[in-house]
Task: structure prediction
Amino acid sequence: MTQTTGKLLGWILGTALAIGFVVVMGQLAIGPAAQSMVPAPATSAGLTEVLFYVLAGVTIAGAAGVALSHNILYSAIGLLMALLGAGSLYVFLSADFLAVAQLLIYIGGVLVLVLFAVMLTNRITEITVSNTSLGLWGGLMLFVAVAPVLLAVALVTPWATITPAAAAHTTETIGDALLSRWLLPFEVASLVLLASLVGAVAIARKEIKAD
Amino acid sequence: MLSSPQRKPFSPRAVLVITLAVGVLLFGALFTGILVLTAAIKPVMIAAFLRQVVGVDPATWPHTTLVTWVSMAITALILLTFGAVISGATVWWEMRVSARMQSRIGYNRAGAGGFLQWIADAVKLLFKEDLIPAEADQLLFRVAPYFVMTGFALTFVALPFGEGLVAADLNVGIFYMVAVTALVVVGILLAGWSSNSKWALFGGMRAAAQVVSYEIPAGIAIMVPVLMAGTLSMQGIIRAQGAWPWQWFVFTNPAATVAFLIFFISQLAEGNRTPFDLPEADSELVAGYLSEYSGFRFALFFLVEFGNLWVMAAVLTTLFLGGWQIPWVSAADWTAARGALGDLPGAGWWGLQLLSMLVMVLKTLVVLNVIVWIRWTLPRIRIDQMMNLCWKYLVPFAFAAFVFTLLWQVLLARVPLLATFTGFIMTGLFVAMAALFGRQVKANIAASGDHVDLTNW
Result:
């Protein structure tokens, strides 16, 4: 009984935090930005629009697959679909470098490593080991709490479309920005990578000593 | 022909004529299609075509978008078909060369020199039973070949065939090429796991470990020509080079030579070619990740493996060997041949394009042939040697080449003549080495009492 109450309390607290986060972010970030946006004029549904909706559908289906699948390998494939879809949406924003970087880093790097790690384990089809969930009630409560806020944000915001410049050269701009204005964050990010590399070596070394 | 003993076999002359006809027609049609369509799907060309040939204004004509999309779809189809056909032809060439190197006869039944064997093999694979093991993961087992095929097919988007002959001259060309190959790894991993067989799983794991490791030296080595050209675009990298060997990136910068070798080795490893064919080492793992595949799904894996040779060779040619650059034809000549940008180009421009395609295809075929030689010359290395080679030798050398190129570019900005000077010296060295190699081969053949015999090809 106490365990259930504790769990329930945890969920309520988590939900409140999520709602608070969305509301604060909406007020601070989306609100002012939305004020200055001009609603886009309705455009005719061409092939590009159809393509956009197909890709958006793939992204959402992939994300749903990650959350709903009972097999962790299928979750990984869902993640692949979601990442691919998000990457192709960057192309619509004419951010070609970002789209390719997404493909290379998230699919060529992260996802392959995830698959690799998953395959090294043998009990991967057991839900209780790999895909534990905290019950139907918790999920439902989180959904009921968050869905209206997210829906409100999606419906109230006057989404504006900016017609992107046709295939602008983004690589040079990104390079310049990384090495001038954003030099410090760039270097800090590389420090984080270095720390994780050192950590990986430390962990791997310990295993060899124990043998 | 056992069932019809009364039927006379074709005479050797007829077989030769049929084989030549098939070869010339197939490759002629494909290369013509690529030549015309990749050049023609650019918006400027479509607009000019509509205005001058069809006689409508492309800005107001309602079907302009439709024409664009349809021509793009046909181009995609032709490029895919080219990938499949060149893969088949590569199998034939590889089998002929390997037979020659191992004193066997090799393909010699279907068509002259067995040239039609790959068509017969493909048809046979189409008719085989599509077997899915009962214990396999049904969905992922079926999905895996699509990932592999997609990763392969997408490379043709940015692969140059000539000056204006590329489906899309992406601004991030070479970066894109590296990124889409990642899908192949995902497919191989899935194939290995979903087969539910220990051989396949081991093959898949080895393939993933190998490809992920060798992507790092390959990626750093690619940075060298990118730094030298100042662009990621495939066409931009070729335009930064010249037509003569001493103007190629591989010879103008000592670090680029090192990067060329590193990239070449890494490409062999990423393509799972001997001496790096551990993922499908037949003496240890049956056939690795494709042990359980049969029929059309197996054909797809096989197609990608051999089609990759063309992609590999073309990327190497683009990055280091001057691509499609034609001697005595400068960038100004191309602009002059093109004429006004709003018009359809004249015959001179198309002739130049054809010539540039010829140069590119020739260089690619030479590199492809070297890859085939290597496969039948070197033994397979062990898995620890493979990892050692990558992490202890290729990665540090690639970084050194990268840093050297940075300094080199700074130096070049002050002394531009240095590139020409180095180019001549390195080309001279290469020619001298090739001559010495040839002399040694000749001496070896003479010493063993053998002689060069090309009669039984």
